[in-house]
From TrEMBL:
<dbReference type="InterPro" id="IPR050223">
    <property type="entry name" value="D-isomer_2-hydroxyacid_DH"/>
</dbReference>
<protein>
    <recommendedName>
        <fullName>Hydroxyacid dehydrogenase</fullName>
    </recommendedName>
</protein>
<dbReference type="Pfam" id="PF00389">
    <property type="entry name" value="2-Hacid_dh"/>
</dbReference>
<dbReference type="GO" id="GO:0016618">
    <property type="term" value="F:hydroxypyruvate reductase [NAD(P)H] activity"/>
</dbReference>
<comment type="similarity">
    <text>Belongs to the D-isomer specific 2-hydroxyacid dehydrogenase family.</text>
</comment>
<dbReference type="Pfam" id="PF02826">
    <property type="entry name" value="2-Hacid_dh_C"/>
</dbReference>
<keyword id="KW-0560">Oxidoreductase</keyword>
<dbReference type="GO" id="GO:0030267">
    <property type="term" value="F:glyoxylate reductase (NADPH) activity"/>
</dbReference>
<dbReference type="GO" id="GO:0051287">
    <property type="term" value="F:NAD binding"/>
</dbReference>
<keyword id="KW-0520">NAD</keyword>
<dbReference type="InterPro" id="IPR036291">
    <property type="entry name" value="NAD(P)-bd_dom_sf"/>
</dbReference>
<feature type="domain" description="D-isomer specific 2-hydroxyacid dehydrogenase catalytic">
    <location>
        <begin position="65"/>
        <end position="301"/>
    </location>
</feature>
<dbReference type="InterPro" id="IPR006140">
    <property type="entry name" value="D-isomer_DH_NAD-bd"/>
</dbReference>
<dbReference type="GO" id="GO:0005829">
    <property type="term" value="C:cytosol"/>
</dbReference>
<feature type="domain" description="D-isomer specific 2-hydroxyacid dehydrogenase NAD-binding">
    <location>
        <begin position="114"/>
        <end position="253"/>
    </location>
</feature>
<dbReference type="InterPro" id="IPR006139">
    <property type="entry name" value="D-isomer_2_OHA_DH_cat_dom"/>
</dbReference>
Length: 305
């Protein structure tokens, strides 16, 4: 069986290539952009595993499922897999794996950074070129004693809860299932209505797409802040941007590859999607991805989705 590894150079390393080569031959296609249709091995008869990063394909898997040949496993280095048509993979007998739990600390740290940036009104400071002028646009807001509402208490949500409670905030959460944790469980509507700072940390899947729509989010307090490191399919980001413009929301933070703070009015913090990207997360990611690929070579797959 052959391994076709498709990723940017920074996403893998020679050490783990050698580890994979103990079990199978490896073709490493390392480039910033890749056209999958120009990889002939994907359409030939030999059995293979595709280890595919979504970054060089622009997070957009082409509609070539029916033409793929003898791909036993498609191994992703991401936790998310919404850029794939999982049903088409299954109908083509392709098993898909992902890499869970590798960047919990990094993403939680990014959410805290975003929160502090909003509370100190960093977007307004940047847009004023850090002009020293005492006015309401740059007046900060202290976090001590504020109510933090976490929507989705997975690994990242739980780590956030630990950090926020340690910073003197009152933490409550909503999740699909109530959990044995030292934080108060609330209904989704109550979390949205009562929180001073909201942290949606939901993964994007069929049950969560559109969950945080305009009619749900309109219950957010006028004095609240929202920090969202989630897929745009889960929440109505445009509605929240409009509320910032109208002055009916105090702050909004999210990540984007194509937008920046200068495109928006008010206290909106937009960062590139680097939340996961830390030294430790990258090391974790490569190690787990490698071990998952090896488990597939042994036909004992780990981390199936």
């Amino acid at each position: 069986m052959e391994i076709i590894l498709v990723c940017q150079k920074e996403e893998f390393d020679e050490k783990h290539i050698h580890e994979l080569e103990k079990f199978a031959s490896v073709k490493w296609i390392s480039a910033d952009t890749v056209d999958l249709e120009k990889i002939p091995e994907l359409f030939t008869s030999g059995e293979k595993i595709i280890a595919l990063s979504p970054v060089p394909i622009g997070w957009n898997f082409p509609k070539i499922y029916s033409r793929l040949r003898n791909i036993r496993y498609l191994c992703l280095p991401t936790t998310s897999y919404e850029f794939l048509d999982i049903d088409m993979c299954r109908s083509s007998s392709i098993k898909v794996t992902n890499v869970p739990h590798y960047s919990t600390e990094a993403v939680a740290n990014q959410a805290i950074f975003m929160m502090l940036g909003l509370m100190k009104r960093l977007p307004e400071q940047i847009k004023s070129n850090f002009l020293y002028s005492l006015n309401k646009k740059v007046m900060g807001d202290d976090i001590l004693g504020k109510r933090a509402g976490i929507i989705g208490l997975g690994d990242i949500g739980l780590r956030l809860a630990h950090i926020l409670s340690g910073m003197g905030m009152k933490v409550s959460y909503w999740s699909k299932h109530k959990k044995e944790v030292p934080y108060k469980y609330e209904k989704l509507e109550s979390i949205i209505e009562q929180s001073d700072i909201l942290f949606p940390t939901l993964i994007s899947n069929k049950p969560t797409v559109g969950l945080l729509n305009k009619y749900v989010l309109e219950k957010i307090q006028l004095s609240a802040y929202v920090i969202g490191l989630i897929d745009s399919k889960v929440w109505d980001q445009k509605y929240l941007i409009e509320r910032i413009k109208k002055g009916t929301l105090q702050g909004l933070a999210f990540e984007s590859e194509i937008q920046n703070i200068h495109q928006f009015e008010g206290n909106i913090l937009v960062l590139p999607p680097f939340a996961w990207y830390s030294k430790q997360s990258l090391e974790n990611n490569i190690a787990i991805w490698t071990h998952t690929i090896i488990s597939c070579l042994k036909d004992k797959p780990q981390n199936l989705v």
